[in-house]
Amino acid sequence: xxLYEYIIRRLILxxxxxxxxxxxxxxxxxxxxxxxxxxxxxINEKMTAEQIEEVIKAHGFDRPLHEQYFYWFRDVxxxxxxxxxxWGLGLPANRVFFNRFPRTVELAVFATILTISIGIPLGIISxxxxxxxxxxxxxxxxxAGYSTPSYWFGFLLQLVFFYYFSLWGLPNLPSSGAPSIxxxxxxxxxxxGLLTGNLGFVWNEFVHLILPSISLSFISLGFxxxxxxxxxxxxxxxxxxxxxxxxxxxxxxxxxxxxLKNALIPAVTLTGIFFASLLGGAMITEYVFSxxxxxxxxxxxxxQGDSNFILLYSLVFATIIVxxxxxxxxxxxxxDPRIKY
Amino acid sequence: xxxxxxxxKNAVKTIDxxxxxxxxxxxxxxxxxxxxxxxxxxxxxxxSFSVKKNETLxxxxxxxxxxxxxxxxILRLVKPxxxxxxxxxxxxxKANRQQMKTLRQKVQIIFQDPYASLDPRQTVSSLLRExxxxxxxxxxxxxxxxxxxxxxxxxxxxxxxxxxFPHEFSGGQRQRIAVARALVANAxxxxxxxxxxxxxxxxQASVLNLLKDLQKDLNLTYMFITHNLAVVHHMSNxxxxxxxxxxxxxxxxxTIYRNPKHPYTFQLMAAIPVPNPEAKKKEIxxxxxxxxxxxxPLGCRFHPRCKYAKEKCRKVEPNLVEKDGHFVAxxxxxxxxxxxxxxxxxxx
Amino acid sequence: xxxxxxAKDTVLEIKNLKVNFHTYRGEVKALxxxxxxLCCKEVLALVGESGCGKSVTVQTLIGxxxxxxxxxxGEIILDGDNLINKTKEEMxxxxxxxxAIVFQDPMTFLNPVLTIGTQLEEVVTMDKDLLVEAIxxxxxxxxxxxxxxxxxxxxxxxxxxxxxxxxETKRIAKRLCAAILSLVKLPDQERILKQYxxxxxxxxxxxxxxxxxxxxRPSIFIADEITTALDVTIQAQILxxxxxxxxxxxxxxxxxxxxxxxxxxxxxxxAVMYGGNVVEVASSVVLFRRPFHPYAQMLLKAIPNIExxxxxxxxxxxxxxxxxxxPPGCRFHPRCKYAMDACTKKRPRLKEVEKGHEVACYLY
Amino acid sequence: MQKDSxxxxxxxxxxxxxxxxxxxxxxxxxxVMTGTIISLFFIIVALLANFIVDPRLATTEGYTGGSYPxxxxxxxxxxxxxxxxxxxxxxxxPEFFYLGTDGWGRDLLSMxxxxxxxxxxxxxxxxxxxxxxxxxxxxxxGYAGGIFDEAVLRITDVFFAFPGLVLALVFASMFGRSIETxxxxxxxxxxxxxxxLMRGQVLSEKExxxxxxxxxxxxxxxxxxxxxVMLNAIYPILVQATxxxxxxxxTFSALMFLGFSPSKSLPELxxxxxxxxxxxxxxxxxxxxSGLTMLIxxxxxxxxxxxxxxxxxxxxxx
Lengths: 341, 348, 364, 318
Hints:
Strand content of chain A: under 5%
Structural class of chain C: alpha/beta
Structural class of chain A: mainly alpha
CATH class of the largest domain in chain C: Alpha Beta
CATH topology of the largest domain in chain C: Rossmann fold
Radius of gyration of chain C: 22 Å
Oligomer: heterotetramer
Strand content of chain C: 15-25%
Largest interface: A-D, 51 and 46 residues
CATH topology of the largest domain in chain A: MetI-like fold
Strand order of the largest sheet of chain C: 6-7-8-3-9-10-12-11
CATH superfamily of the largest domain in chain C: P-loop containing nucleotide triphosphate hydrolases
Number of helices of chain A: 13
């Protein structure tokens, strides 16, 4: 199969996945009498009973559930995605979402960079020094990473780097929130700051990113280190490593040229999926650090039973995950010449 | 032993236990958005032969010749694309459940890798017991144990081996266990798929001896598949040579080794290293690699590597033609007998 | 390397080599005093069944024993140096030049994600002498002949200017790789250099692997079961190639095989191993005509022979000894029909019974 | 001739020897041993929790009036011998809140001990149900192949494409706040990985010659799948399940922490942490110790799982 055919195949599957996700979420959020009424964001106090009636009719809230789904579908194709009531006002869900999304992207990028740059070396050390002290240490770090409750670790960081540092009069890191955005060009705050030359803002934003990034990557670098370790150990057992050594190659060359490329293939999957899931917002971390991303918004929306926002959020997330999987598969074909689609 | 007799209009003829007619096993290659079939791997591509009662038919071929697929197709472990496989008159590809059950009891297979063909988490005792249980040949556990022991002794193992796991045995012993399991439900026909290719020479010798003894004792019929021409020569009565999914030559052992008619057979024979440094060396090299069974050459499938290829060979595929029990699929039957090293002339 | 070597000179000598492996179940006494001599420019076949210690011998020789192994005693003398005492780094440097090995299954021993070119080039570029000499003899628009370079290896003595630019290295390495591939009879070298191992057939992969070994212009060429994973017709091609290369490569060959027929076809001398010992060494003609050691005798009778068919093969009774708790004395004595009292007490050492025919057995 | 009982003993001994070898491998690794000891310790404490803890230390009774929980001071052990409200007299002699008290004025150590059975029990239930569901479906899909396999795969695709936590949260918030809802919500997001894992295992296992040998022997599909393939494929699942015990404890408590707890006073580690969060700067010990407990339990299970992976690695057994 050609690569593009494979991609088309996967994209067709994506449509089905999105449909399934939307139906499931729709019924879960609208099918039960919890949270606020779906028409709440569309009305305000000034409206008369007739007006409210009209709004409800116009959006089909009086229809049976399966018909409501098609009303929602119509909204989606109008590009409105319905209104969200979580933030008190009837804001369009997509506006809320895409206002917050760049912040999530920023956090995801930072955390992923941090994860890769610590996780992969940790895994390699672990494998090369198998069952020796460095291995034990890096294994403990790795295992501790994903045995840690993420919110707890976030609080710990806040407690130490913000609270105690300021108590002790040390320069401290901000514990929560993010600076407000000055100008919007591309939408990504740091990039915009650089483009407009607003270095003060860039620094401020960066400083706010440090703790949430550390918190996120500490949890996930363990997974990465483990995968790298396992696949590296597997690769180091292979015959072609013996062959490389028998050629008289330096151990460094054996590990970095011959072993690493083979060993990184599974790590690519993990990193891809990890990055994708961060793009969907690290809910708990964003919540703990009050980072104004989509994860935090989703958490609030779930608490409110805000159907429109959750639907949008889930669909974007699903798309990202499917595309990330696809990207990983394509990357495989480049990393491993044997793989053909 | 029952004898299987069918009466035709004029004659009463004993049929061979295994008759294969024009068997084809094609694996589809799928591609594209809707995964449509764009081609086939023609692993077995029209094979016909029969195995006589109590004989050993050797099947030789290099990797990719389809010999293993042939074995699996006979046992219906893969679904044949076309053709018949008749065992005791029953067409295996179309056999019903009940017929299959008896077939599975009568026809058994021994695989190449004796370690991989035994469930690693079963002891010898339990795997033998299971084989008996499936076919209901024993009534009680103690009877099963008794029978297992008898068989283990028959294949050269002992009571002490009964409660061990496969990984505690050597390769030769594992293969003996596999043989014991195949025989535990009273099989009549064994397909031996490279049974000694994972074993050392001295172990191979003892396993081959065991197989010969068992054949004599239990009236077994063998189909012996291997790439080792010396082993097949030692074991077989008749030998079939496969190339790219087809039998190119089939004849009595001595005929085929002394008087091969197909250029491939001849060159294969010439390529065998001989355990004698003083033997006359023949530098007949078969050039090139075995082509893939996806793109089988037109005409005679051997012609791109054949020195004697003529125009006809490029266009028309030769049929397997019999002459005095010697089947050859070649347009130009060349007599290689003069060039063959034979048993008699070795020491002169 | 000494310049003048006689055909009878010993290039490599292994003396009383003992190697143990530490495992869960105990010490595996893999090598129990191996004695072996490799003469200049000869092909010596080391024959034995699995577990006899032939691969461990090779691993020790090239300094790539697994971590759980330890050399108890013995010497491996190459050019007057004892390899056992060398450091890891010294052994590595030795492997870049003097000791080249080719392994069994070319599919698993070639790195699947690197091209043949990359894997060959990294060998070529390690040897600065080779690059300099290649630049010296290359003629534009003419293919490099690698055999010329092999001849130069021992004769060139004057100090060389080892400074070559990176671009120059790349360029000459490319030409060298092509030259080596044509030495092993691989056609269309440019294309093959760009291909990945999985794109080649088994025979071509094996040739590529041989090329990687020859590129080092080794003085000792070790062929570890190189035809085992191949089909008969391909095996014949590779053995034929080896015969052709014999005179060109200027190396002594140590051929490891379990297949006596392959040894018979290629080797000048054959050493038979059993249970961690070399039990018999003789020229291949003599060994096949009149083997002395009971094990060698039985082994020869265990192979089915087309030329000399028997209705029954002679199997060796008993099983291969447990190397954790091997039988005392001669390790073959529990399976030997001639076993005497002495055999159970002390291990027989190799001794010359006829000229050039050594055997480790108390019968002689 | 042997009797049936003797047959069974022979089998049994063979399997015992196999297990002994595994234990040997297990013991060689100090990290794994530590993990095993710690997890066993926690399990034992959890089982005996109700006997260990003095109920008086774990009640909210001493807490009088005011709105939860800031009326009653969080207390730190070193300087605060137990003085339990005006009307409650405890044991003779001084006792200390070794880990301080929580927002309800309860002894934190006692609360953590009481939380152990809740968390461990939930983790076990969730993992067992998710693993059983996932492996059965995965095994059937992998073995049967064809349309059934395709259907199962597509369903797991959908679940993989979901933001897991959101699904669980939506589910939990829609069906009301009870432990059962939470369990169900977590199972909902936790079974698909088992499907994939088991399916992959079965796919590779069913290609092995021993399966073919069994078929040639006439063994039926059910026998091949359940008595052979699954038994050989189950080990990675065991590893995964062991490691998931830790993960599920974390997720479960995270849901509790995020406010999906059926009752704020329920002894549960996430609940305790949430309580501690309210006073993170004034009484950091509450969140510190409750989180640390989760970390240690989870780490212990992960260590065991990690070691199991090595021990059960078939390559070591050839």
